[in-house]
């Protein structure tokens, strides 16, 4: 079987940032399922040739290759709805898009694009109901997961010789920097990795090494916050908050992200901010631990640094849970069956 995988293969289309999440995490799963996997680096092609040429090249590829599946992870509006309609009209091709961030992008992006697809995948429980309420009956509710990379034979929880006490992996932004500074002021050093931090980006295998060799893996899923202490900490936080509200693009609701599964899947102990529906996938306090605000985060970091046995028990249970129920192989097996591909 043949699939065309349409997604940014370079992070944000910027070669200096390395491979994208889609290329490192999702693409390997498709290479396991399909005999032939053809990639279309949609953002790089769009940036190089413009929208018209990018769409013409995409249509030509589909016409030439005649895939059973066209699977997209569209960044914005690089592919037009007219192009999607043309591909959707083909009887021998199934057209699917994985919509990211429906928690805040549904109204201005997903709702407009979903009717032009055979299937629309969302990771947001509330948005799934919005699809139905808007008469869009092709939505599939799925979720982010763990992409098994380096540790296909060894995913045991690391117990000794840690490299780090507290780590954070994720792109640097104003809110995350503020949180890290609050921890530093309270005597907690955080080793930060990702675009914008001094340590820079890391590959997926390197990331898993860090997860396993850190006593505590802190997760800050939100890139914006309504935390009042943060908003009044400077002019930028407040102005950014107001501007994004006016634009209708403010991330007013937290969301489950891939990182929630990646930390546990690699064998790390996870201390994450609470997000809605996290309990659908994890037993809080058993598979991972959550914090509610910076003061609670400081307390729990200090607590779990001094309670090794409890921390290890949580890491081990979270690891077993994710590997049994929350890998991309499991997710896509369910999706492919639902769309009638296998």
Account of the protein in words:
By secondary structure, the chain is α/β, with parallel strands linked by helices. The protein folds into 2 domains: 156 residues, Glycogen Phosphorylase B (Rossmann fold, 3-Layer(aba) Sandwich), CATH 3.40.50.2000; 162 residues, 3-Layer(aba) Sandwich (Rossmann fold), CATH 3.40.50.2000. Helices cover 44% and strands 15% of the residues. Strands 2-1-3-4-5-6 form a 6-stranded parallel β-sheet, with helices on both faces. Helix 2 crosses helix 3. The termini are close together.
Quick structural overview:
This protein has 342 residues and is α/β, with parallel strands linked by helices. The protein has helices spanning 21-33, 42-49, 51-65, 81-88, 102-113, 125-133, 174-185, 204-212, 228-231, 235-247, 258-265, 294-305, 308-325, 328-338, and strands at 2-7, 36-41, 69-72, 94-99, 119-122, 139-141, 164-169, 191-193, 214-219, 270-273, 289-291.
